[in-house]
Specification:
The chain has about 300 residues and is an alpha/beta fold. It has ten helices and eight strands. The chain folds into two domains: about 100 residues, no CATH class; about 140 residues, Nucleotidyltransferase, domain 5, CATH 3.30.420.
């Protein structure tokens, strides 16, 4: 998606969202006056999202070299880098609503996983203060980290369905009942989601089948051929996680405030949602044969 197409899409969304958003802020007392800024909300959202579609690794370099150097005609009322950083937290609400509007539809087949988001190098954990009281020490198969976990569910077309952010020490299974409220059909996860209690809860509350692999010390069980095939295709969500980290850059350890961490995360997820080609299984329902085999 080009810069012009991105701005037009965001501006169309803001035409409906912004008046209602400002009215709610004024009614709640969070905002006391309605004053137009030098940069519109659409322009600010476009810049923070377009950064994640560019090849720049730091926002400061992107803004000072690319935006101020080459996009002056597209954004004639640019502010200084310091002022723009101060304005970034004001886009959290609109970015969150915009991301929600880009979520896909559940097709009956969904995949769940979590992304560890480290906010500092492990050597700086004891003296880290930016996310004190927010982040937590967690562990994955790659080792220890200090930060958050992003729990996400995607469909077979690679579209985001629902997300949830928790502290780094959160058990991957705890958010699943909340994530599954908008789903139906089958939910595939890795061995970290093995739990008979969770499987029974999802089936009783939402009639969703949670399907996972088996540990080495577990007995074999009967499983349909189509479920066996789809469980092997769970790598689609791992591919998406790789793109979110390395292309959309939702993780780095240079955050100066929790608000800008959230902006960076939301903008990266939106940049992924706008990708024209996402990882997809290209499933043909007729190709799945309901045969029972041993796992």
């Amino acid at each position: 998606m080009s810069l012009v197409e991105l701005f037009c899409h965001i501006d169309d969304f803001c035409q409906t969202f912004h008046p209602n958003w400002e009215y709610q802020l004024l009614a709640s007392g969070a905002k006391t006056r309605r004053r137009a800024g030098q940069l519109s909300l659409s322009e600010r959202m476009t810049i923070v999202i377009h950064f994640h579609q560019s090849n720049y690794r730091t926002f400061k370099t992107y803004y000072q070299e690319h935006v101020q150097g080459y996009l002056g005609s597209e954004f004639p009322n640019l502010v200084s880098y310091e002022r723009f950083v101060a304005l970034r937290p004001r886009t959290i609400g609109p970015l969150s609503a915009y991301l929600h509007s880009l979520f896909g539809q559940c097709s009956g087949i969904a995949f769940v996983d979590s992304i560890p988001l480290a906010v500092c190098h492990n050597r700086r954990i004891l003296r880290h203060r930016v996310f004190e009281g927010w982040a937590a020490l967690g562990k994955t198969f790659m080792g220890w980290f200090y930060g958050f976990k992003l729990h996400l569910v995607v469909n077979d077309r690679g579209e985001l369905l629902v997300i949830q952010l928790t502290a780094g020490n959160y058990d991957n299974r705890r958010p699943v009942p909340t994530l599954a409220k908008q789903l139906w059909g089958k939910l595939f996860g890795d061995k970290g989601y093995i739990s008979k209690k969770l499987m029974d809860q999802l089936w009783q509350d939402y009639e969703i089948r949670l399907i996972t692999g088996l540990c080495k010390n577990m007995k074999n069980r009967l499983i349909q051929m189509e479920d066996k095939v789809l469980l092997c295709k769970r790598t689609i969500i791992e591919t998406i996680i790789d793109q979110l980290k390395n292309i959309s850059q939702i993780q780095h350890t240079r955050h100066r405030s929790p608000a800008n961490f959230v902006v960076n995360l939301l903008a990266g997820l939106i940049a992924y949602a706008h990708q024209p080609k996402k990882p997809s299984l290209h499933l043909a329902p007729s190709a799945l044969v309901p045969v029972l085999i041993h796992n």
